[in-house]
Every structure is written in structure tokens, then in C-alpha cells.
Amino acid sequence: MSGPVSPAKTSGRLVVAVPYLWLGLFFLAPFVMVLRIALSDAATALPPYAPHFEGFAALRDFLAGLDLENFGLIWEDPLYWQSYLYSLRIAALTTLIALAIGYPLAYAMASAPARWRAILLVLVILPFWTSFLIRVYAWIGILRPEGLLDMALAALGLSDQPLRLLNTEAAVLIGMVYSYLPFMVLPLYATLEKLDRSLLEAAADLGATPLRAFLTVTLPLSLPGILAGSALVFIPAIGEFVIPDLLGGPDTTMIGKVLWTEFFSNRDWPLASAVAVVLLVVLVLPLALLQRARLARAGEGGGAA
Hints:
Elements lengths: L6 H32 L2 E2 L6 E2 L5 H9 L4 H8 L1 H34 L2 H12 L6 H12 L4 H8 L13 H25 L3 H9 L4 H12 L1 H16 L3 H6 L7 H11 L3 H36 L1
Antiparallel strand pairs: 1-2
Helix pairs in contact: 1-14, 3-14, 4-8, 4-11, 8-11, 9-10, 13-14
């Protein structure tokens, strides 16, 4: 017969339950609602969909004749799956460019004297003090023909023709890298700041060149920061709507813009919900597999120890 549960054990269970409660309220419940709309039919009503079932009694009959018409339309219409592929490519390029810029920046911040690190950290997060929309609009003034960039290049004698970057894929990448770069820098800085510098000194004593010491010591130890920063950039970038809409041209049809069009222009909530569900699966499934692999590797490492 078990004895009374200690207060410490009860408080521990409550602490563990808080994240699950948060996920249940703000992730699982909205997902179920969106999935329910995705399995509905479009209708001229308010809200503009007609659910197939109401309550648990009708749920059994609904599951017996489950209709995945909205999900079938996503595969049949090239617009949707091409938008997914395009969004994946733009998000991947944004992540790689942000990593290429953010890693040296974070490394320099972590290597700076302690009195300068707080100032450098504030400079990285300073753009967040300005509205996201205003910052994107600022890039329109910079990239538009005869804008600030063209004026600066002309003043330096580097170009006498407008670059015409606005409404191109390059403008979208510039805007997205600029907007999401702090999300890459901050996790990398947090990881690199904790790096034991004596390991680099030991590698140098053993004859390793600075490049070899970086590749064999610094880079592997900073891998958690790389993965965290890449996830923080890639996940919001794939569903970005504002930046492609303002800086991109008609060919930059990312899935966020498709979702907005289906929800607000076409008012086809069931199809838009199906698009959102597929997007969520595309994002969550690789992350779940990555987390599972990480836990398996940690378990193997513990067992070997």
C-alpha cells in the first residue's frame, strides 16, 4: 500500500503538467478546430463552412463516410504543392544565409570582452523595439528603383542603372534574413558564450591549427545552438506572409499568401484549413523525428557511459 504523496512530488508533477496544459490549450485544441473545418464543406454563411457532424453521436457516422475532398484538391491543383515547395526552398535559403551571417556574429559577440557583450546583445535585439511592419516598409524605400540603395551606389560610382531588386525573390530573401537574423544569433550566442575556452587551448597544445580546433571542438559543441537557431528561423519563415507580399513579386507565391487568399479573398475556409493542416504536418513531422533521433542518441551516449 503506497504512502501519502509528498508535497515536493506533487509540485514536481504540477511543474511538468504546465507545459502539457499550455500545448493542449494553445496547440492541440486549435488544431482540432482547424481539422474540423478542413473536413467540412464550403458554404455561403457566417462562418462560411458547413460541418459534417455536430457532437459525438454524429461523429461515428461521419467517420464511416469520411470525405477528404479538401485534402485531395491540394494534391490535384499544382498551385498548392508548388507553393509548399517554394516556401520550403525560401525558408531553407533564409535559414542557411542567416546561419552563414549569424554564426560569425555570435562567435564574435561571445569572444568579445565581458563589458561589451551586453551592449552587443542589445544591438542585436534593438530592431525588435520597432514595429515589424515598419521595418519591412523601410526595405521598400531601400530596394525600390532609385531608392536609398541605388542612390548610395550612384554616389559611390559603382552603378548608374537601377538594380530593380524590389518585387524579386532576392528582395524577399533580404527582408526575411534581416527580420529573422536575431533568432539565429541569440541561440548561437547563448551556446558559444558557455563554451569552455580551455578546450581550445588544449587543442592548440596538441598541435591543432585554429581551423582544425574550430572544426573539431567549437563547431560540434555549438551544434545545439545551430539546431535551435535553424528551427527558430525555418519554422516562421516557411509560413511568412507579410514580407513576400510587400517585397516579392507575383511569382513569389508562398504558402502564407495562399492561405490568406483562401481565407479572406475566396472565403473557402475548409480548403484553407486543409492547407494549414498539411503545412503543420510538414513542419511538425520532421521536428518530431529529429527530436526522437536526438533522444535516442542521448540514450546511447548514457548507456555507453
